[in-house]
From TrEMBL:
<feature type="binding site">
    <location>
        <position position="124"/>
    </location>
    <ligand>
        <name>substrate</name>
    </ligand>
</feature>
<comment type="similarity">
    <text>Belongs to the ribose 5-phosphate isomerase family.</text>
</comment>
<comment type="subunit">
    <text>Homodimer.</text>
</comment>
<feature type="active site" description="Proton acceptor">
    <location>
        <position position="106"/>
    </location>
</feature>
<feature type="binding site">
    <location>
        <begin position="84"/>
        <end position="87"/>
    </location>
    <ligand>
        <name>substrate</name>
    </ligand>
</feature>
<dbReference type="GO" id="GO:0016853">
    <property type="term" value="F:isomerase activity"/>
</dbReference>
<dbReference type="Pfam" id="PF06026">
    <property type="entry name" value="Rib_5-P_isom_A"/>
</dbReference>
<protein>
    <recommendedName>
        <fullName>Ribose-5-phosphate isomerase A</fullName>
        <ecNumber>5.3.1.6</ecNumber>
    </recommendedName>
</protein>
<feature type="binding site">
    <location>
        <begin position="97"/>
        <end position="100"/>
    </location>
    <ligand>
        <name>substrate</name>
    </ligand>
</feature>
<feature type="binding site">
    <location>
        <begin position="31"/>
        <end position="34"/>
    </location>
    <ligand>
        <name>substrate</name>
    </ligand>
</feature>
<dbReference type="InterPro" id="IPR020672">
    <property type="entry name" value="Ribose5P_isomerase_typA_subgr"/>
</dbReference>
<dbReference type="InterPro" id="IPR037171">
    <property type="entry name" value="NagB/RpiA_transferase-like"/>
</dbReference>
<keyword id="KW-0413">Isomerase</keyword>
<dbReference type="InterPro" id="IPR004788">
    <property type="entry name" value="Ribose5P_isomerase_type_A"/>
</dbReference>
<comment type="function">
    <text>Catalyzes the reversible conversion of ribose-5-phosphate to ribulose 5-phosphate.</text>
</comment>
<comment type="pathway">
    <text>Carbohydrate degradation; pentose phosphate pathway; D-ribose 5-phosphate from D-ribulose 5-phosphate (non-oxidative stage): step 1/1.</text>
</comment>
Length: 226
């Protein structure tokens, strides 16, 4: 096991997450390279579930390509489980997410789900959130002012670029990536930043934290419960 690559660890936890899919129930599906492994594994269960609610156009395309129906969030009720990756996870199950720019829809589907199962390799575990640049989805006209608000907290916010121009999210907005923060009280921080005009979603998932984390380690899958 010690020779496993990060990609193999992602495949391991993607496969392990199948145990949390409830037969007969629609599953909430996140976004990212780890979730892609989960989606690929989910194809084996497609005759046992009605389908999925997806957190991004990218995951929707991957699910549909594998023949897994995708439901619009408004057309279904509460989901049994939401399965997604993370950029960082702390010992209480609080996370930083949004490295794939899908944080808003991720938080929406997580909020619609009874249980959040995080799948990650052990490089994502941190004592305090903030080493990974914090993604924040913002209304473009508010970006400069929000960047100044982060500066007042000691952060350095930059508009995320793609091909030299601001990246546009699935929701038509921009992403700020904020470095230099130490998020010691994730619940309070998430509530605070969410109040700032023009913030669509802050990438701290403390109110929608993980209930379970399946962690890929050289020794196999470690299950953390919070
Ligand atoms: C996308 C996310 C992802 O869950 C996060 O970036 C982890 O991605 P990966 O599995 O590729 O490391 O929040 O917005």
């Amino acid at each position: 096991m010690s020779q496993m690559t990060q990609d193999e660890l992602k495949a391991l936890v993607g496969q392990a997450a199948l145990a949390y899919v409830v037969p007969g129930e629609i599953v909430g599906v996140g976004t990212g390279s780890t979730v892609n492994k989960f989606i690929d594994a989910l194809a084996a269960l497609k005759d046992h579930i009605p389908g999925a609610v997806s957190s991004s156009e990218a995951s929707t395309a991957r699910l549909q390509a594998l023949g897994i129906p995708v439901f619009e969030a408004n057309t279904v009720g509460e989901l049994a489980v939401y399965i997604d990756g993370a950029d960082e996870i702390d010992p209480a199950g609080h996370m930083v997410k949004g490295g794939g720019a899908a944080l808003t829809r991720e938080k929406i589907v997580a909020a619609q789900s009874r249980r959040f199962v995080c799948i990650a390799d052990e490089s994502k575990v941190v004592r305090t959130l903030g080493a990974f640049p914090l993604p924040v989805e913002v209304i473009p006209m508010a970006a400069a002012r929000i960047a100044r608000q982060f500066a007042a907290l000691g952060g350095d916010a930059r508009v995320r670029l793609k091909d030299g121009v601001p990246l546009v999210t699935d929701n038509g907005q921009h992403i700020l990536d904020v470095t230099g923060l130490q998020i010691s009280d994730p619940l309070a921080f998430e509530s605070q930043v969410n109040q700032w005009p023009g913030v669509v979603t802050v990438g701290v998932f403390a109110h929608q934290k993980a209930d379970v984390c399946l962690l890929g380690t050289p020794g196999g899958v470690k299950t953390l419960t919070f």
